Amino acid sequence: MGRSHVRTRRDADPAGYGFDLETVERPFDPRRLFAPPPDEAPIEVEIGSGKGSFLVAESELRPDTLFLGIERARRYWLYAADRVRRRERPNARIVRGDAREVLDALPEGSVSGLHMYFPDPWPKRRHAHRRLLIQPEFLTACERVLAAGASLRVVTDDPDYFDQIEDALAARPKLVRSRYEPPASANAGELAGSNFERKYRLEGRRIQAVAVLLADEDDALANEQA
Prior knowledge:
Layout: E1 18-20, E2 43-47, H1 53-61, E3 66-71, H2 74-86, E4 92-96, H3 99-105, E5 111-117, H4 136-145, E6 146-156, H5 159-170, E7 175-178, H6 195-202, E8 208-214, H7 217-225
Parallel strand pairs: 1-4, 2-3, 2-5, 3-4, 5-6
Antiparallel strand pairs: 6-8, 7-8
């Protein structure tokens, strides 16, 4: 279920597009990563950007939205940042760091959408604690950074993991089930439009997706009492 090996170019250069969470200015304002820093454009965050395919494709089709990728593995972060730089995407940046730590650093209510496409499900039982979406603390962090009405979208090919995600989301009254809409860069019939999805479909795997919206306080209370 892990990602394929990636060989980083020797001249890979993340300058201006890739940032390390440990070195960014605090308090962390993601708009400062873009030059000039826009005041009105919505910010969407991809958790686990891998090689940067989503960032590159989606930022081209939606130039009025800012895209911030999060990637923990240095080789993938470097590859993706260099790829975004070479494609000259002014509205895409990528931060190296643990997803939870980056979310905790983001301002409250600053994110218009969270994307998670084919996160590693860590299928072995001893690795279960690493599965992001079955951890209440992670969902609390998601709720904190999302603006009211903003979405969290997840796509996976692992049926057991999908069931766990559904159960975890169902236990959060602030997260209201919504119709899943694929990203603009997905082809017809695709849910995420990633290389993983195309590979897995050829292998005959079932691809499943879920989307939730962050409710405002009144809706969340009504959902909790229902």
